[in-house]
Design brief:
2 domains; Rossmann fold; Glu/Leu/Phe/Val/Trp_DH_C; about 45% helix; Aminoacid_DH-like_N_sf; NAD_bind_Glu_DH; oxidoreductase; binds glutamic acid
Length: about 425
């Protein structure tokens, strides 16, 4: 039960920037694809945004009221899908941008979903198990009318894990008076979770990272990799890369970073990390997250939070490949700088789509009541990620656009088409 983990904090202003830059890329993608302005008007905002207040009786006997959100971007293709994050810095604009990104991911890996995202402003690192359970159940009660296995299917995200999904599924099943495993994905295996879901984001990142390395004539076995973030994606990714013979020279958590050009002892670090992905506190010789990004390496994987590679540090990145395992780690200006410098950028909406892909497998298995083997999941995930990478890589080449715009063009098309067929625009 590993929770995803953020690195540095992000402000409201940054979240507004994240939303407005996402809109700018969507607008350009739709223009390139020849869609009229009205399609952009529909897709620039989530169709639905719910704000809820969740009272929880805390361990000290007092009631604390938490704020939560659920954004549903577009359900023309099918029910909406996306994780729920628990984080003190969650804002409405961040959740909106994240919901739009989920739509793009679903489009890229061709799932029958639109995008959604949820969030609760809280710090789970400072809450007890009992308080977290109360908050998780309270959130489900608050949003229960707009979610459901055929409406909107939540999943884990930053600082949420399979235990939280289990409580949420149980609460929804009570409200629904029916066992509803397909209400939420990322559940423990015994409650209808899927093999391979826990490691899916990292596996997806590993697959596209290998494809990107091939294109650059780089052998992953000889590559030096820096992974920023040691949460669900970052920790498993470090392990997979280490096991494939790559040299993981840098890792980080929310409190600091470790860098060693000779390669880090990943198994030791994995063993010592806590469930929030914290490990650097055990060391004295740490550097900052900011410093880590500028260290020598061949491949850089930001696997933490938004706005890490900006116009301030993009020129100092040493890697020849940047694979975005986190959502929104690179700003628009930085995307241009990296692209102009010939760095191959594998954008978030492609690189991190492995999680939602296996969530889709989980939901299909729940609907069928028939469960697949881990090999079957791996093989299907592999096919989908390789195909999606190549579609986006080739579109970037043929349409002469950067990898992010290419990913948006591929990701937005199905949703735009479906909205038109439904007669919405
Ligand atoms: N939170 C993950 C993401 O950002 C997974 C979402 C899902 O599985 O629905 O892609």
């Amino acid at each position: 039960m590993v929770a995803e983990q953020p690195a540095d904090s992000n402000s409201n202003q940054e979240n507004m920037d994240v939303l407005s830059s996402t809109r700018t890329v969507i607008k350009t993608a739709l223009e390139k694809l020849g869609y009229p302005e009205e399609v952009y008007s529909l897709l620039k905002e989530p169709l639905r945004m719910m704000t809820v207040r969740i009272p929880v009786r805390m361990d000290d006997g007092n009631v604390k009221v938490f704020t939560g959100y659920r954004a549903q971007h577009n359900d023309a293709v099918g029910p909406t899908k996306g994780g729920i994050r628990f984080h003190p810095k969650v804002t409405e604009n961040e959740i909106k941008a994240l919901a739009i990104w989920m739509s793009l991911k679903a489009g890229i890996v061709d799932l029958p979903y639109g995008g959604a995202k949820g969030g609760i402003v809280c710090d789970p690192r400072e809450m007890s198990f009992r308080e977290l359970e109360g908050l998780s159940r309270g959130y489900v009660r608050a949003v229960s009318q707009i979610v459901g296995p055929t409406k909107d299917i939540p999943a884990p995200d930053v600082f949420t894990n399979s235990q939280i999904m289990a409580w949420m599924m149980d609460e929804y099943s009570r409200i629904d008076e029916f066992n509803s495993p397909g209400f939420i994905t990322g559940k423990p295996i015994v409650l209808g979770g899927s093999h391979g879901r826990e490691t899916a984001t990292a596996k997806g990142v590993t697959i596209v990272l290998k494809e990107a390395a091939n294109k650059k004539g780089l052998n992953v076995k000889d590559a030096r990799v820096i992974v920023q973030g040691f949460g669900n994606a970052g920790s498993y990714l470090s392990k997979f890369l280490h096991d494939s013979g790559a040299k993981v020279v840098g890792i980080s958590d929310a409190y600091g970073a470790l860098y060693d050009p000779k390669g880090l002892d990943i198994d030791y670090l994995l063993d010592r990390r806590d469930s929030f992905g914290t490990v650097t506190k055990l060391f004295n010789n740490t550097i900052t997250n900011k410093e880590l990004l500028e260290q020598e390496c061949d491949i850089l994987v930001p696997a933490a939070v938004e706005n890490q590679i900006t116009k301030e540090n993009a020129n100092n990145i040493k890697a020849s490949i940047v694979v975005e395992a986190a959502n929104g780690p690179t700003t628009m200006e930085a995307t241009k700088i990296l692209t102009d410098r010939g760095i191959l950028l594998v954008p978030d909406v492609l690189a991190s789509a492995g999680g939602v892909t296996v969530s889709y497998f989980e939901w299909v298995q729940n609907n069928q009541g028939y469960y697949w083997s881990e090999q079957e999941i791996d093989q299907k995930l592999n096919e989908i990620m390789i195909k999606s990478f190549n579609t986006i890589y080739n579109t970037a080449k043929t349409r002469r656009v950067d990898m992010r715009l290419s990913a948006y063009m591929v990701g937005v098309r199905k949703m735009a088409e479906a909205s038109r067929f439904r007669g919405w625009v």
